[in-house]
Automatic annotation (TrEMBL):
Protein name: NADP oxidoreductase
SUPFAM superfamilies reported in the protein's UniProt record: NAD(P)-binding Rossmann-fold domains
Lineage summary: Bacteria, Bacillati, Actinomycetota, Actinomycetes, Pseudonocardiales
GO MF annotation: an example: oxidoreductase activity
Species the sequence originates in: Solihabitans fulvus
Record Pfam families: F420_oxidored
PROSITE patterns, per database record: D_2_HYDROXYACID_DH_1
Pyrroline-5-carboxylate reductase catalytic N-terminal domain mapped to chain residues: 2-93
Listed InterPro entries: D-isomer_DH_CS1, NAD(P)-bd_dom_sf, P5C_Rdtase_cat_N, STEAP_metalloreductase
Record keywords, A-Z: Oxidoreductase
Length: 220
């Protein structure tokens, strides 16, 4: 697959590293320092290129949005039309910028900012360093990457991409139902926590039933 990255900071940079590692191509964009972005792409090898956000959206099979919350609007403006394009939102609501209405998830809010996109959310619950350290585990030790979205076919594509990087994709449902995967770290949420597949499926069952999720697991 050709993976577009809008914002090659910690999270976007790790997604780019992991994507290249397993044979995907990446195209990177949206940096305050173009020279640094070019150097980063060069370090990834011949599977990486640099372009504008608009070029990323036009050429990628899926586009990862990995910018600070306060510049989401600017990044989307530079990306241009998203008609039918698959977007993976990794952002968390920290810092300045418009935010969700009371009771609205950040995913639902961002999906409303790009209604023409095939919107999904993932890669937002763990630090980039932890994601890098656990990518590629196998069997029961594989770490979960949560995802949500209202487009079932888009989520299947994203789940396949997540799995290719060596994580276990777990679908929490639609954008209105994914509060437990959003910041901040707190009781009765999966944000900031490591999960393996069996424990994650118990969380999904609880969310769908409208009851509190099980206690956070601990792994050796």
């Amino acid at each position: 697959m050709r993976i577009g990255i809008i914002g090659a900071g910690h999270i976007g940079g790790n997604v780019a590293h992991q994507a290249v590692r397993v044979g995907h191509e990446v195209i990177l964009s949206f940096s305050r320092d173009p020279a640094t972005l070019r150097a980063f792409a060069s370090g990834l090898g011949d599977r990486a290129a640099v372009g504008t956000p608009r070029e990323v959206v036009a050429s990628a099979d899926l586009t990862v949005l990995a910018v600070p919350w306060g510049v989401v609007g600017l990044a989307l403006e530079q990306a241009g039309p998203l008609d039918g394009r698959l977007v993976v939102d990794t952002t968390n609501q920290f810092g300045s910028g418009p935010g969700p209405a009371p009771g609205q998830t950040a995913a639902a809010f961002n999906a409303s900012r790009m209604p023409e996109a095939r919107y999904t959310k993932s890669f937002n619950t763990m630090t980039s360093g932890f994601q890098a350290a656990v990518a590629g585990r196998s069997g029961h030790s594989r770490v979960v990457q949560w995802l949500c979205g209202d487009d079932e076919e888009a989520k299947k594509v994203v789940a396949g991409f997540v799995e290719s990087l060596g994580y276990a994709p777990v679908d929490l449902g639609g954008v209105a139902d994914c509060a437990v995967m959003e910041s901040p770290r707190r009781p009765n949420a999966v944000y900031g926590e490591e999960y393996r597949l069996a424990d994650a499926l118990a969380v999904v069952d609880a969310v769908r039933a409208g009851r509190p999720i099980p206690p956070t697991p601990a792994y050796r």
